[in-house]
Amino acid sequence: MLQNRVVLFLLIFTTVIVSCDSNGVYDKYKSVPNAWHKDSIISFKVTPPDSINKHNLFVNLRNTNAYKFNNIFLIVEMVFPHGKTLKDTLEYRMAEPSGKLLGEGYTDIKENKLWYKEGVVFQESGTYTVNIQHAMRENGKVNGVVELDGITDIGFRVEHNNAK
């Protein structure tokens, strides 16, 4: 009886400690129904906590074994509160050469935390919009992949940059 209470206490304590994330400022996900269409733009509205400190920005992807590529191309656009827009085309590795998917997770769903920008200071006050769209193509084909299978969720994360 006492052992069960101790085990339960340790389990709850560990869960609370692990789930605390003092580094995160913003962390949201949006689900992709069935497949990610090439024209589907996933948008996030971010209101930064301050205009002084540096932050690191990440694109988070959750994917299953149905994802058949070893990389992913993303178009990430940041729209500033006063209208300025920065647009980047980014490539990330999603699998090892052997085909084993990269990312965290013990099931067939893997979570990938992908660097977007480092040391960003949100100098304009107001809401920033981050738009994420895939730009995948199969080798030797001109037209892009219309329905990208295997991506289940797209996320955006802002963290404090603890570098001095």
Which terms summarize this structure?
single chain; 164 residues; mainly beta; Jelly Rolls; 4-stranded antiparallel β-sheet; 1 helix; 11% helix; Motility-assoc_lipoprot_GldH; Gliding motility lipoprotein GldH; lipoprotein
**How confident is the prediction overall: mean pLDDT?**
86
What characteristic shape results from the CA principal axes?
Answer: globular
Q: Sheet with the most strands? A: 4 strands, antiparallel
Percent of residues in beta strands: over 45%
Q: Could you say how many structural domains there are in total?
A: 1
Low-confidence stretches: 6-19
List how many beta strands DSSP finds: 10
User: What percentage of residues falls in helices of 4 or more residues?
Assistant: 10-25%
CATH class wording: Mainly Beta
- Number of helix segments? 1
Class inferred from helices and paired strands: mainly beta
Protein name: Gliding motility lipoprotein GldH
Keywords: Lipoprotein
Pfam family, one: GldH_lipo
Organism: Algibacter amylolyticus
Explain what you see:
With 164 residues, this protein is mainly beta. It has a single domain (24-160), classed as Sandwich (Jelly Rolls). It has one helix and ten strands. The strands form three sheets. The protein has a four-stranded antiparallel beta sheet with strand order 1-10-4-7, with no helix packed on it. The protein is globular and about 45 Å long. The protein starts with a helix and ends with a strand.
